[in-house]
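Fresh eyes needed here. Kindly weigh in on this sequence plus C-alpha cells:
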Amino acid sequence: MAQNPPLAVETLEAPQVEVTAPAQELSRRSRLERWLFTIPALLFQLFWGWYPVVVAFYLSFTNSRLMRMPDFVGLENYIRLSYDPLVTKAFRVTFTYAGLSIILTFMIPILVGILLMEMPSGTRRWMMLLWFLPLSGIASTILWRYMYNVRYGLFQNVIRSLGFPEQRFLNDPKMVLFWLIFPGILFYGPGLIYMAALQSIPTSYYEAAEIEGASFWRKIWTISLPRLRPVISMMLTFAIIGGLQEFTWLQIMTGPTGDPGGAARSVVMYIYQPLWSSLRLGDATALAVILFLVIMVITMLFRAVFKEDPDA
C-alpha cells in the first residue's frame, strides 16, 4: 500500500514588534515621572529621618553644649550614664509601664472587637460610635488629670460618697503607673482595625466550624485569633515601641519630674528633664541612642519570635 508523503508543517513565528520612537519616549517619560514622585519622599526621609540619627550617634560621643563646637570625648557620656542611678530607675519605670500597658490594654480591644461582630448590625454601629468617639489627646489628658485630683476630683468624690477610704491616685508611688494605664483600659482605640480584619475572614470558616460542633470560644481560638495574627503582630509592635517612647501622657499627668519622687519618669522624660534642659546635650543624645538601640533589639527579637503566618 502506498504511503502518503508526510505533510510539511509550517511553523508560525511570532511577529516582530518594533519599538517605535514614540513608545521609547513614553517609556523614558514614565521612568522620569516615577523618579520625580519618588525623589521628594527620599530626600524627606534622608534629611528628616536618617540624617538626625547619624548626627545623634556623632553627638553622643562628644561633650556637645549649646552655642559651642563639640569636642570628641569617646565613651565618656555612656560611662557617666551607666553610673547614674536615675537612668537605671528611668529604664525600670519605662519597662514596667510598657509591660503593664501591653498586658492590661492590648487584648481588650481584640476581645471587644470579636464580641461586637456577634451583635446585630444596628447595635454594632452604636457601640462602635461610642467606643471610637474621637477625643483630643491633650484635652482628654488634662480632663483625666483633674478627675484624679485627690481633693476635688471626680473619682475621689465618688469614693467618698460610697464610704470608701480616700485614694492617693497619682500621688501614690506604688500605684501611679496603674492609674496612668487605667484610661487605656477603657478607651484603647485600635479596636476598629481588628474589626476591619475580622470582616475580611470568610464566613465559610465559621460555618464549617459550626457544622463540626465547635463552640463560640473554640471558633475564636482556632479561626479568629489565627487569622488576626498579622494584624496583632503589627499592632503589638507599635504598642511596644509606643510604650517605650511614652512622653506626652506621662509629662502632662505627673509633671516634668514624674512625681511622686520620679516614680513615673520614663527614659524620654529623663532625656528632656533634666539632661536636655540643663544643656547636657551629649548625655541626652547618648541616652537617646541607648533607648533607640534597646527598642530596635526588642523589636527585632519580637519579629523573629512571633509568627505572622495564620497557617503556621
In short: Residues 78-134+178-305 form a domain with the MetI-like fold fold (CATH 1.10.3720.10). The mean pLDDT is 83.
